Amino acid sequence: MEGIAYDLIVTIVNKGRAEKVMEAAKKAGAEGGTILHGRGSGVHEKAKLFGIVIEPEKEIVLTLIPSDISQVVLENILKEADLNKPNKGIAFVLSLDKVAGINHDYLRK
After folding, report:
1. Residue range 77-103, pLDDT digits in tens
2. What percent of the chain has pLDDT over 70?
3. Do 70 and 77 form a contact (C-beta atoms < 8 A)?
4. Helix (H) or strand (E) holding 19
5. Are 93 and 9 in contact (CB under 8 A)?
6. In angstroms, rounded to a whole number, what is the distance separating the alpha carbons of residues 22 and 31?
């Protein structure tokens, strides 16, 4: 939509923690998001069970929001999902140039 700047908050957490991220984002003004499933492949991500390497499952939360509330939403995700603590996850914000298909009323104001 023209005239509105958007950001995408990408949050990657261990399996089972995506709902906590979604609740935090909604509490701060986001309408929702998309949860994707993935697996870790970092140096510290691999564990062994009976000599077999196990790569931990991850959940990726994509939250598309107007840029003017992205800082508030990000801060609430960090706080509520404990992302400032080790091994809890990571979040980052991407500024978007173009967005299509948004039909939410709050974005039209």
Report:
1. 999 999 999 889 999 999 999 888 876
2. 78
3. no
4. helix 18-27
5. yes
6. 9
Q: How high is the pLDDT of residue 89?
A: 92
Q: What's the CATH number where 46 sits?
A: 3.30.70.120
The three state secondary structure string of 84-100 is CCCCCCEEEEEEECCCC
Domain enclosing residue 60, as ranges: 6-98
CA 63 to chain centre: 6
Sign of the torsion formed by the C-alpha atoms of 22, 28, 32 and 35? negative
- Flag whether 108 is in a domain: no
User: Apex CA 66: angle with CA 65 and CA 67, to 5°?
Assistant: 110
Q: Decide if 64 contacts 22 (C-beta within 8 A).
A: no
Q: pTM of the full predicted structure?
A: 0.82
In a domain, 105, yes or no: no
